[in-house]
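User: Fold this one for me? It's UPF0102 protein EVC62_18565.
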Amino acid sequence: MPAGTDARARGLAVEQAAARWLANHGLTLVASNQHAKGGEIDLVMRDGDTLVFVEVRHRRRSDYGDPMETITAAKQRRLVRAARFYLQAQRLSCPCRFDVVGVTGSQPDLEFDWIRAAFDAY
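Assistant: Here's what I get for UPF0102 protein EVC62_18565.
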């Protein structure tokens, strides 16, 4: 298996673990890996009436920095653009927010750090 394929499989497994963890904390999974113009939304979830776009960031170890530190302004713009595309494609008009879940460790020992409303659309 090529290294990129292995990394992608690990990434999907971490995203699935994050979705389960968030579901255990009251959110409901709507969709995952939504590709849109200019970006990808890892998880789309519901928190009551609010649609939540979740970016999952993973690092095996925190020696090289916290996974949350990797959400740059450019990444935020791509996520907002992808979310707008998703809302338009689904013909949705509802309250939305952007959450970030930082995941540290390796399966099955993962630690989750959840920031609700991590940034705003602009």
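One thing worth pointing out: Helices lie at 3-24, 73-90.
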